[in-house]
Specification:
Layout (H helix, E strand, L loop, with lengths): L1 E5 L6 H7 L2 H8 L6 E5 L15 E4 L13 H13 L4 E4 L1 H9 L3 E4 L5 E9 L3 E9 L1 E5 L5 E5 L7 E4 L3 E4 L7 H11 L7 H10 L6 H13 L6
Parallel strand pairs: 1-2, 1-3, 3-4, 4-11
Antiparallel strand pairs: 5-8, 6-7, 6-9, 9-10, 10-11
Helix pairs in contact: 3-4, 5-6
């Protein structure tokens, strides 16, 4: 099964030098499930020619807001709507979670209670508490009519959404390994933007195992599930 990676941003240069860019993180996360990958840096206006160029699509995180004025966002929303109409499965992570919701009629805003950085626990339907790394202030604040909530936390009400067998999206970052998020915390530690106690706690929690492997299983199962012809 071929998965098209729609990459919506770039890692910080210092992080990419050690750990690769976003695409490499997803290939490591999903590398044991028999997928092949094509990568498109949509943030740089590199788009697939057709929604049928892959068997499924994965939309990555981004430093940008889904509601911001960037050239790649309108065509990416169009692509999402076309793939959705054609029943081609999509997975969205963080920005991808938000962008898919926005494209399908939801609403994304900055959360007035600030940032989530580092290890957070979410209640996932069918799995109980799942711990994953997060990095966001924006959230889905209004859910599209076709979406079902499958994960939430006290900080993030709509942390996971599923749209039948057509889209599976989550707010946290299963592709963020502890070494990656530790680098980010160290490089971005700035008391004018992030609460310093929160950042120090996040750095401490980055030494603790999380459940990224369980989410990798979930993502792979979503892509591979049998689907009826539309």
């Amino acid at each position: 099964m071929k998965i098209g990676l729609l990459i919506c941003g770039h890692a910080l240069a210092q992080v990419a030098e050690k750990h690769g860019d976003y695409a490499e993180w997803f290939k490591r996360l999903l590398g044991d499930y028999g997928f092949t990958f094509d990568t498109y840096y949509v943030v740089d206006m590199e788009f697939p020619k057709d929604v049928h160029d892959a068997d499924g699509w994965l939309l990555s995180g981004s430093p940008h807001g889904a509601y911001e004025d960037h050239p790649f966002i309108p065509p990416l929303e169009d692509f999402v709507r076309k793939a959705y109409a054609e029943h081609i499965p999509m997975v969205g992570i963080c920005f991808g979670h938000q962008l898919i919701a926005q494209a399908l009629g939801g609403k994304v805003e900055k959360f007035d209670k600030g940032w989530a950085v580092g290890r957070h626990e979410y209640k996932f339907e069918g799995h109980g508490d799942i711990a994953l790394n997060a990095w966001h202030q924006d959230q889905v604040m209004q859910v599209p009519k076709d979406a079902k909530v499958i994960a939430s936390s006290d900080f993030c009400k709509y942390a996971g959404l599923v749209y039948g067998d057509r889209a599976y999206t989550i707010q946290p970052h299963p592709e963020f390994s502890n070494p990656v998020i530790s680098e980010y915390i160290t490089l971005r530690r700035n008391p004018e933007i992030y609460d310093d106690d929160m950042m120090l706690q996040a750095l401490e929690y980055a030494r603790t195992d999380n459940d990224s492997d369980k989410l990798a299983d979930e993502i792979a199962a979503f892509f591979k599930q049998p689907r009826k012809a539309k």
